[in-house]
Amino acid sequence: MNYFKNIFQKSSPKTDLKKLKVELKKEDLIKQESTIKDVEGLKVFFEKLKSHGIKRYDNFFNLCIISSIANSDIMLLKHQIALTDQKLEKLLAARMLALVIIEYLQDMNDLLGNKLVKEMNENSFKEFIPKLRELNSEFAQIRKKHQSVLSNIRNNIAAHKTKNGLSLVNQIFNLNPSEIMEMGNEGCIVDNNFTKETTKIIYRIIQEAEENKKKAGKS
C-alpha cells in the first residue's frame, strides 16, 4: 500500500503517476477476479451445507461473504480515488468509501462478537476463539477511532444528505480523500488477518466433513 502515500502530492512526476495508474488498474482486475472466485466458492459451499440441513455454520459463512465483498469494495474505491483526476469524482468515491467502511465495521461488531464465539463453541472449534476475539477487538478499536467522522459523512453527505445546501457543499469540499483512504487501509489490514483465520476454519470444516463421510462409508 506504499503507493498510496504520495498520490495526493503535486510534486509526483507524471511518469510515476502514469505507472501507478497502470499498476492500480491491473490490481483492480486481479482483485475483482479473486473476489468473484472467493464469493462464488463460499456461496456454493454455504448453499450445499444448507441443502443438507446444516445450519451450524450460518453466522460464520455470512461473515466470510460480507468480509470478502466489503474488502473488495474498499480496495476498488481507494483505487478510484487514486486513479481519477476529477475532483468531484474523487470526493464522491471518498464519501462512498466512508459509507462502506462504517457499515462494514458495524456489521463486524454485530457478527464477529458473541454470535461467532457461540457458534465456534457449539462446533467444538474453541482453539479459534482467542484469535477471533482479538480481531474483534481490533475492528472495534478502528470503529471507535473513526466513528465520529465516518458517521457524520454517512448521515450528512453519503447515505443521507443534509437539506442545508451550504452545509452540504462545505462538508463535501472539506473532505480529505487521503484520510478516508487511510481509514480503509487500517480496516483492510485487520480484515486480511481475519481472512487468514477464517481460511483455517474453512479447512477445518472441510476436514471434518471428509472424516464424517469416511465414517458413514464404513458403517
Automatic annotation (TrEMBL):
Domain of life from the UniProt record: Bacteria
Provide the protein name: HEPN AbiU2-like domain-containing protein
Q: Which organism is it from?
A: Flavobacterium algoritolerans
